[in-house]
Amino acid sequence: MDLAHRLKVLRCAPTCGAHTAPDPEYVSGPPRETTLEAPCPVCNHSPLTLRSLELDLPFFGDAIQTTLTCPACGYHHGDLLLIRQREAVRITLRVARPEQLSDRVARSSSATIRIPELGAAMEPGPRAEAFVSNVEGVLRRFLDVVLGQEAVAETKHARAAVARTRRRIEGMIDGKEPFTFVIEDPTGNSEVQDDEAVRALLSREEAAALKSSEPMIDLSDLAWADKEG
Which neighbouring-strand residues pair with 56? Predict the structure, then answer.
């Protein structure tokens, strides 16, 4: 198994996901619970339990936190829905100043996050969780994957390739290397808190082309790293 494939199949676990309890000061309505007549995607049990909670999030406004659970097997799926924007969107931010690393990021369970300079993407899936973090927090998710691969790299060439990627991400986190931060969301429920972020609507074809496999960090385009000396 080559380096690119090993990096691609690693999953990304959310740090602050939609399944976690929100700060009480952000709750704007009572919790609601209902049953959903649908089969569990894991054990096929029906019905499922759907819980929702209205939130008022700083910078992002009104939102709804939802959690779908199966009482039979314990399956759960959380999401965070921003109410104010619904169309498929691409949000692009050029991160050129250290203070932009603190920009808040809301990523729905449907969104793909890309760092084009790394050829890297964090892709969603049926069990992906929404989360609220910041730009640096997202970079650290990529760094965690690279650190793990550096520890298990099997050849000197592979270790050198991963180390180059690690140094680039560390430079981004330290504010020394500008980069591009992109979120593509077919549901329009993701956001970046920065006035310089550029928002563009996705075409139907672009939205349909976004992946929906298991949540993963995809670094398969790092061919440049393997080819360097």
Answer: 62
